[in-house]
Amino acid sequence: MPSIPAGVRGAIITGWGTALGEKVITNDDLSKVLDTSDEWIVERTGIRERRVGGTTAGLSVESGRKALAMAGLEPGDIDALVLATTTPDRTVPATSATVQNALGLRCGAFDVNAACSGFVYALVAAHGLIALGMNRVLVIGTDTLARITDWDDRNTAVLFADGSGAVVLEAQEAGTQLLAWDIDADGSAEKYLYCDIGGYMHMDGKEVFRRAVRIMVDSAQKSMKAAGVTADDIALVVPHQANVRIISAACERLGVPMERAATVLQYAGNTSSASIPLALADALNHGRVKPGDHVLLVGFGAGMTAASAVLRWGGTA
Ligand code: COA
Prior knowledge:
Layout: E1 10-20, E2 23-26, H1 27-33, H2 38-45, E3 49-52, H3 56-71, E4 80-84, H4 95-103, E5 108-112, H5 118-131, E6 136-144, H6 154-157, E7 162-172, E8 178-184, E9 193-194, E10 202-203, H7 205-227, E11 234-239, H8 244-254, H9 265-268, H10 275-285, E12 294-301, E13 305-312
Parallel strand pairs: 4-5, 4-6, 11-12
Antiparallel strand pairs: 1-7, 2-3, 6-7, 8-13, 9-10, 12-13
Bound molecules: coenzyme A.
């Protein structure tokens, strides 16, 4: 992966916000209609309950509005909106157009679909826009997987949910927050996780699990090497929230203690593009990150994509 050229204009995150589906579905709720149990789901996935409901645009507007308010910005201050989603509300137009209008933004807007790695892809793209002269970019990751989940299929119904997380990225002349990044994909693995238009998610759980750990670790190691940091330097890992066993296996291979991982899957389930910004916001809201800390974002998803980024919180200056 190319390293960030010296002197390139960087950015810092100045606001964040989240939104979750309104309806809570517990494991016990699922075990009333499926051949499953709270015990099995918790032990095999770490998920205790999940939130469903809302549209991709609606959840994005909620998280985006909160992020703007926290950054102290007006809609007119934003130069671009990048929305990561794998569940757009319509095929045309892009859901980002609906969100742009509802938030009152007057700027370019586009969707990014890299499945569960989408938020990190979008964050990297947003840094590219800032390097090219933009000042403030709103980056949102949202998915409404409940709509493409077959609720009669215990293989997938126990995992997926709806949510959204947003960050405001503002240019910083001296000292960037993004030290290094990596994006990857392997389209030959698409058969292990896919959803046809109008259909439901299909998943070979074991194969996805096996590959997920490997590609997350590979991507994270590339970013850490490019950033010149080791596992000891990482204060917080923000992994994609698919399965706590995937997170702990990846942490173990990276040499980062599990206590340093941010997790929200216990109450939010797997929200795809939203899972990393939801977990990041949760960690920030709980005071788990201080200026100067190294934060590793790392995701994987259908396609099979992987993406990672090493941030130095607050920037390098
Ligand atoms: N409830 C109860 N039992 C279940 C079950 C469920 N929801 N799903 C499967 N089982 C059963 C199986 O039938 C099997 O029974 P058997 O031993 O009698 O054959 C047993 O539990 C073990 O199934 P297995 O598929 O080996 O479970 P697992 O430990 O691999 O866990 C997943 C299944 C899906 C949780 C796990 O493979 C996973 O998380 N994979 C990655 C999925 C992922 O990350 N997807 C999103 C990517 S973005």
